């Protein structure tokens, strides 16, 4: 027996109703899993619009015998950065470099002579226009609302596009499990795992606790100055108006947030 | 029914053979895993039933809120706030991955990779 038009329409209507009703019921059940709740920032946090760092090269030069590069030591121990002797596999978040390698575009012979034997501290520049963020396919690296170029290690797939994109070599790949190379562990901070890229995060976790970055705090010469570029009255803006500061590879237009005071 | 002898025999053999895992383990069911709960704390971030069912979703949301959106505190349904953190909040009460997380995860063959980066409380002891 062929189905009648009337029966067909009835059945179609019933099916439509059933589908909608079951979907609605499903949503109703699923909504039970979401509790009434919220999230807040911490009142003790340091809040900035664009965090930046000034490195007083003169103080680094004068204090280098005294300080024993406590900034690097502080950063690497707090963040469980491994010390891997093999240069091809080493991981570094902040490190020292000679002037001519830190600023290869500054061809002036005179500069080279002045800054001979001065340790230039290099770290992620937290660029305003970061090329690493543009290339990351999973958005594991992104710009947060405080101007920090963040890493979400949960999302990193280890493709190393960011390392190729970064003009400053600020990123390190974990070729091997870093844990055996961490002598003393900080139980408050995670390690990384094999196959993710790591770098300086401007101590976002310390800023949330109201503390300045570890390297800045550890420097006995007060050569590192941390502050907010977005705040007109901040110390960093005041100093930048008065003193001569250069940035690494400024011609590339990434607008680094790390400045080197050279006067 | 044609060939009823063969068909019925076939059905019996099929049920016996494919139900083998059930027949072999009949009456030998393993007890449900009992994760070790902290003695000094009675209340978790949310109710016990909620945590049991949705802890994984909550942790997933926590990590997005903390790392990507810069939030620091979670306010629960009772209005109490907790600092977001696996190592620094969860594991301050649940002091063992082996005796808490893994008891259930092993039973149901769930292998979350949290502890490849986050440091389990047991690992800290081994390190120092």
**Assembly state here?**
heterodimer
Mean pLDDT of chain B: 92
- Stretches with pLDDT under 50, minimum 5 residues of chain B: none
Number of domains of chain A: 1
CATH architecture of chain A: 2-Layer Sandwich
Largest sheet of chain B: 2 strands, antiparallel
Number of domains of chain B: 1
Largest sheet of chain A: 4 strands, mixed
Q: List how many beta strands of chain A DSSP finds.
A: 11
Largest interface: A-B, 32 and 33 residues
Order of helices and strands of chain A: HEEHHEHHEHEEHEEHHEHEE
What is the number of beta strands of chain B?
2
Order of helices and strands of chain B: HHHEEHHH
Give average pLDDT of chain A, whole number: 92
Structure summarized in a few sentences:
Chain A is of the alpha+beta class. Chain A contains 10 helices and 11 strands.
Can you give a write-up of this model?
The complex is a heterodimer of chains A (263) and B (128). The mean pLDDT of chain A is 92. With 263 residues, chain A is α+β, with helices and mostly antiparallel strands. The longest helix of chain A is centred in the first third of the chain and has 26 residues, at 5-30. In chain A, the strands form four sheets. Chain A has a four-stranded mixed β-sheet with strand order 9-2-11-10. In chain A, 32% of the residues lie in helices and 14% in strands. Chain A has one domain (51-261): Alpha-Beta Plaits. Chain B is mainly α. Chain B has one domain (4-127). The model of chain B has no long low-confidence stretch (mean pLDDT 92). Chains A and B meet through β1 of A and α3, β1 and α6 of B. β1 (38-40) of chain A pairs antiparallel with β1 (73-75) of chain B, so a sheet runs across the interface.
